Amino acid sequence: MFNSIMLDVAYRLLNHGPTVLVTTAHGEQCNIMAAAWSMPLDFDPPKIAIVIDKKTYTRELIEASGSFAINVPCCAQAEMVVQVGASSGRELLGKEADNKFAAFDLPTFAASKIAAPLVAGCVAWLECKLIAEPHIQDAYDLFLGEVVAAHADERVFSNGHWHFDGHDELRTIHHVAGGNFMAIGEAFKA
Questions:
Q1: Per-residue pLDDT tens over the stretch 127-152
Q2: Whole-angstrom Cα distance, residue 29 to residue 132?
Q3: Is residue 95 within 8 Å of residue 88, measured between CB atoms?
Q4: Distance between CA atoms of residues 44 and 41, nearest Å
Q5: Is the residue at 107 inside a domain?
Q6: Which residues, other chains included, contact 101 with Cβ-Cβ below 8 Å and sequence gap of 6+?
Q7: Under a CB-based contact definition with an 8 Å cutoff, are residues 93 and 102 in contact?
């Protein structure tokens, strides 16, 4: 037996990938935003796809710089994810804390291949060069990136696999709408 689902919430049936933090920088400007709609796209070279709305400051900086980072936050960072996701970096310009990193006192470290800062405390980081596709960017807010460097916290990712046992606070978080999240569950093999 099944229930029919209203089409305006149908996306929630697939929205279980990890919530990510998108960081970017261009010149002296930088920004961070939360995003729930991202996915791997290809293996070699590795590519990702992510939805970034036309109105965001992050999009403006990605288009100017040609690069961005995907930071994969964990349960311990859920409050911070909500904070950066509910605020606009553009509104901070010209103020004392002129970006979200300063406003929320976010610890970062330098990426190896791009200018965007990486967020400390996350469990994975993907440094990406924009694959310019103006048509899909304009029509669908869909951005493609080639992953040029990748890093992970060895406590929960090694030998190509996630393993969260003993590290519940480091489990990835998954936005399921309306400020509600789920943590990734236990791994199993079929």
A1: 999 999 999 999 999 999 999 999 99
A2: 21
A3: no
A4: 10
A5: yes
A6: 30, 32, 108, 117
A7: no
Amino acid making up residue 134: P
Beta bridge partners of residue 175, listed in sequence order: 181
- Report yes or no on 2 lying in a domain: no
- In a domain, residue 71? The reply is yes
Residues 2-61 pLDDT 10s: 766 567 766 666 556 799 999 999 999 999 999 988 999 888 899 999 999 999 999 999
| CATH code for the domain in which residue 23 is found | 2.30.110.10
Count CB-CB contacts under 10 A for residue 22.
26
How many CB atoms are located within 10 Å of the residue 140 CB? 11
Q: How far apart are alpha carbons 71 and 22 in whole angstroms?
A: 6
* Domain with 99 in it: 7-183
Q: Is residue 189 part of a domain?
A: no
Buried b (16+ CB within 10 A) or exposed e, 5-18: eeeeeeeeeeeeeb
Q: Is pTM, for the whole model, over 0.70? A: yes
- Smallest CA-to-CA distance from 32 within 101, 129, 108 is with 101
- Number of separate domains in the chain: 1
